[in-house]
Every structure is written in C-alpha cells, then in structure tokens.
Amino acid sequence: MPVVTVRALEGISAEKKEELMDRITVAMKEVLGKNPEATHVIIEEVAAENWGIRGKTVATIRSGK
User: Fold this and answer.
1) Rounded to the nearest 5°, which phi and psi values hold at 2?
2) What is the pTM of this model?
C-alpha cells in the first residue's frame, strides 16, 4: 500500500486536489506498477505563515516586505 504525501501552501481548490491525486495515482501505477485501489495520496496544506524561504515566511514575501 503506497502512501504519497504532498505538502503545499494552503489555498488549493478541491478540484485541483482531486486532479493532483488522480495524476499521482496514475503515475504510481505507470512507473512503479502499484495498484490504484491501494494507493493513498495525502495533501497537507501549510499556512503561508508557517512556511519559510530564504529566512522569511511566505506570507512576508507575498506582502512585499
């Protein structure tokens, strides 16, 4: 039972999450031969205030400060 975890900034639409889950499931089948019925995909959304790049939060970077 493969489990794929994706961490991304919050704000992904439900439609995009479903598309991502579908594409990952298909890739797991095509590349690794994994059964789609047993493939789990978890999307963990992280607040921009809790994600840092270059020593600043994404929220700060987005605000232009």
Assistant:
1) -75, 145
2) 0.87
Q: In this structure, which amino acid lies at residue 65?
A: K
Asked if 30 contacts 65 with a C-beta cutoff of 8 angstroms, the reply is no
- Amino acid at position 3, single letter: V
In the chain (65 residues long), the average pLDDT of successive 10-residue segments reads 97 98 98 98 98 96 89
DSSP 17-32: HHHHHHHHHHHHHHHH
Active-site hit among 1, 2, 14, 34 = 2
**2 carries an active-site annotation:** yes
Give the chain's domains with CATH numbers. 3-63 (3.30.429.10)
